[in-house]
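Researcher: Please translate sequence to structure tokens.
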Amino acid sequence: MAVHIYVHWDFMKRVAKTYNKEEEFELYKQSLLESPNEDDTIIEILGMHTEHLFDDNPRVHRFDSVNIFNKKQKKIKNTGFLSREDFLSYWQIIGEEESVRVNGSNLAQCPLSLIAQSMLYQEDPEKALTLTESMDHNKFFTFACEAFEDLGDFHHSRFRYGHVTLPDREVRIIEPQGIQSLWKGWSHGNTTYQLTDKDTKYHLIHPRTEVHLIT
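Model: Translation complete:
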């Protein structure tokens, strides 16, 4: 038995239509639907325009992610974070399950936000629960992710990426670089490497995406 989480799974649907990548998007969607076993727990994290992926049934739990107003862009921004009330309910559902597979859109964005909030909760519950209430939440989130990466905490966690779409930029998967790279924080590999395993599948939708493996 495992937990499968789907974070803003259809965020790239419009991109797929724009660049004639509907077939790739449908393959990604089908992979999501086929990923959980019958006895696995399913959690959907919904954004402002996220459609339900699974039919209503007792195995499916749904939460709305927190939206934050971006002053610079003057628009509401989706995040992968959960409010205090929703996070506590979510945490009770995943319990002590050893395998938590996080799917959705996009790599290093909303799925990572939920993973980092979950890991932070184990270190500092109050900070994790009030993360989005702080004006400096982005800076703190970045700091926490860098710390988890440097220490190899992502690798040692129970969280792994499942089926994840890639953003419209360069994606680097950096393998462990050895003790000489401690100053770079890559002695355990970067975050993407640490959260990747044999069951992880990255889905390329946007034509500007470039993937580089650094060994």
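Researcher: Any highlights?
Model: Residues 69 and 76 are 4 Å apart (CA to CA).
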